[in-house]
Design goal:
It is a single chain. The chain has 10 helices and 2 strands; from the N terminus they run ααββαααααααα. By secondary structure, the chain is mainly α. It has one domain. Strand 1 and strand 2 form a beta hairpin.
């Protein structure tokens, strides 16, 4: 109970620090919308075939950019922030404070999940207003929220885990982008899958969590079938990330 109380209390401070940095907050919230406008401007008049469902590219990109927003907020931001704070000695000082490690990490994850929820809400509202995108309702909304929360938590755990291979803060952007950008392209986030998509790309995409998370987000926005197997794959990757984080997450800057 004490751990939960401390975690919730720490979330308040993390949230205040986030909003007191206007530039960071603005670009975190605006980045997915910028990509949404760019992709819909270039490809919005096309159509995308998802099984028996045919939708406008603009509608597809609302769902895709919502997934991209969650991954950016929970994986990329988490990994780079932790790497920078580790090199600056902030994590070492926190580790020496009375605040338990698990409460600090839980607060960071909770904050990232809340930011992810806000980003998806903003993207959905923007998509509804400008592109007539479908908004999940009823049972569809419940399934959508399960995927959203599980996905956000899983990518946070993976973001913490990837810090184990980041030697210093200077290398953080390169390593984080190299680990996620190829998967975004291979999972249909930036370029929708079609009949001409090579089979090996679809096979690779099914192995990693990005494709499964995107499928769950698409189900909420465009009405394609929702599969609990997608949730299980994302959750399994999140659990693996959590195990690796517990084993390899470092609180002090690396030397040598």
């Amino acid at each position: 109970m004490r751990t939960i109380t401390l975690s919730l209390s720490q979330v308040r401070y993390v949230n205040k620090a986030f909003w007191r940095n206007p530039s960071r907050a603005f670009f975190t919230l605006a980045f997915p919308l910028m990509f949404l406008v760019i992709f819909t401007a270039l490809l919005g008049n096309n159509t995308v075939h998802l099984g028996s469902v045919t939708i406008k590219s603009s509608t597809y990109y609302v769902a895709a950019m919502a997934a991209f927003a969650v991954i950016t907020a929970c994986y990329s931001n988490m990994a780079m922030t932790m790497a920078f704070q580790r090199d600056a000695g902030i994590l070492k000082r926190i580790d020496g404070s009375p605040l338990p490690r698990r409460s600090f990490l839980a607060s960071r994850i909770l904050h990232s999940v809340l930011v992810a929820l806000l980003l998806v809400a903003i993207t959905a509202a923007f998509g509804r207003l400008f592109y007539q995108a479908h908004i999940p309702r009823g049972l569809e909304l419940a399934d959508f929220l399960v995927m959203l929360v599980v996905g956000a938590a899983a990518f946070c755990a993976l973001g913490l885990a990837v810090t184990a291979i980041i030697p210093n803060s200077d290398a953080a952007p390169a390593i984080v982008n190299a680990s996620i950008l190829p998967l975004l392209f291979l999972s249909g986030i930036f370029i929708p899958f079609g009949n001409s998509t090579p089979a090996w790309i679809e096979w690779v995409a099914r192995f990693f969590p990005v494709r499964h998370f995107a499928q769950g987000m698409l189900a909420g926005f465009v009405g394609t079938p929702f599969r609990w197997s997608d949730v299980l794959v994302v959750a399994a990757w999140g659990l693996a990330g959590l195990v690796l984080s517990v084993r390899y997450f470092a609180w002090e800057p690396r030397t040598g």
